[in-house]
Amino acid sequence: MPDLIDGSENITVHGIFNWILLLAIFSIITVIGNYIGYKHPITDSLIGMFILSLLTLAGVWMERYLPFNISSIIYISVMGIILAFPGMPTSEFVSYYVSKIELLSIVTVFLAYVGIGMGKSWNEFKALGLRAIIVTVLVIASTYLGAAVVAHIVLVMTGVPV
Predict the structure, then answer these.
(1) Alpha-carbon distance 108 to 29, whole Å?
(2) Are 107 and 48 in contact (CB under 8 A)?
(3) Stated pTM of the model
(4) Residue-wise pLDDT tens digits, 84-106
(5) Domain boundaries, the chain
(6) Can you tell me the distance from the alpha carbon of 161 to that of 38, in angstroms, rounded to the nearest whole number?
């Protein structure tokens, strides 16, 4: 089975279809997990995942076609912040529906996808050795810890009881 995302610089109709297919599958699985685990209404979760998927597609397109050397995650984050920024006409709509998507639901599906991808290239992964595994674990743990510290500081500064 060919890769759904080929990583090429040009976006073709076939490539866009593959991105949409991948995001649709990802969204459906996330919505099911969101409903079962957190009891969020399916329609609200679907709308939230649709918003996130549109942001993802726009960010990928911008990364490849704008003349700046900026990662798609930056574009996606900035667009999301702008759309959800208080005072923007889209703020309440975007904030309401995206808040119906639990992070753990998204991460679970993402890690399953990564696991499948690693399973396809297990020999390459084993060739990286123990050092690569240790570095990977440390990077993931550091990212999580850093995000938790920043979130805690922001919550304390805004007066939210922690």
Answers:
(1) 10
(2) no
(3) 0.72
(4) 999 999 999 999 999 999 988 89
(5) 1-120, 122-162
(6) 22
